[in-house]
Amino acid sequence: MRLSRYFLPILREVPKEAEIVSHRLMLRAGMIRQEAAGIYAWLPLGKRVLDKICDVIREEQNRSGAIEILMPTIQSADLWRESGRYDDYGKEMLRIKDRHERDMLFGPTNEEMLTEIVRAYVKSYKDLPLNLYHIQWKFRDEVRPRFGVMRSREFLMKDAYSVDLDFESAVTAYNRMFVAYLRTFARLGLKAIPMVADTGPIGGNHSHEFIILASTGESEVFCHADYLKMATPGTDVDFGDAAALQGIVDQWTSLYAATEEKHEPEAFEKVPQSQRLSARGIEVGHIFYFGTKYSEPMAAKVAGPDGVERPVHMGSYGIGPSRLVAAIIEACHDENGIIWPEEVAPFRVGILNLKPGDAATDEACDALYAELQARKVDVLYDDTDERPGSKFATADLIGLPWQIIVGPKGLAAGTVEVKRRADGSRETLPITAALSRILE
To answer: Quick check: pTM over 0.85?
Structure first.
């Protein structure tokens, strides 16, 4: 993409309404624009990051055996009355009526709708296990939306729902998602720690939040410091091996880790003092096992091997891609702007033409641009007439992992400069070597 043809409304001033780093940088980098309290338009740069995060989530959900569907944003209130949650959910639910005066709502979550789908089509234990997920917009009318997309009213959510015959197989389903989440967050450049958590309005009796440590976190969390050194499960993990999955979960739950609501000071004091870690944390994922909480009142039953019908056991598993954009920025930034992990960067490479209109620099930049595009590398070519200092500032602000800086002086010696955003390192290389350095 040529920057001269792109829509990138950079702000040079720090927005006064932005309270935390991610909100400030997302506004300054032209990623989002607020349209109402807690409701944002995603501009091109932000949309690219959001899509890449969804791609990673989707790949890891598919790897674990989950199957993607798409459920509507508007739901019938009757489903929620069946489960008993319609009156209990509170003012966070946006309740509406259609033209026929039927009670509807903008879905804050999809347990009821998924249960309704299951009871319509799943009749036998032979159809199980099943895990269905979708990536869809949700709405929760927060009393005080703040921190940009970190705590907004409208947000994008990946929610998965497992359906199993009994408790034992439901635990295996829970473990699949547990391991899939560890892999997902690692690929996004985050060290997420699973912590025992409160189930909240979703309900159930088993729950973990996946927390990243950040000074701007919403609440205090407590854990053993060894979590920061644990190795993430690799691509060779077998999601069909229940024992292996249980072993991974056992390892990742063997040490103390709890959110503020579940914190037990006496248990935490048993952790060696040098290994106690208390910090602020940001929730990036939440998983629940809730058994028959929805299937029983909504009569979602299957026939077991003995022919007896029984309510299915279920769990739900959430990741907020829109929230993750902000969380990644909170964990990956410096005084100059965002430092995107390469997996989710809006563009992997930026080409900075320091003298547009100069035949030699234009020719070199055009050749680099064509070659990177041919190699399927996402590249942003800054061909604008801005001053070099402004170009450097923009590239750092929007967090391009690699920058190829092309100027007449370097080209006269047959070289370009390659900058790595993560550590600020610079190398002066011949053009072919610069390409090799980035593509290696």
So the answer is: yes
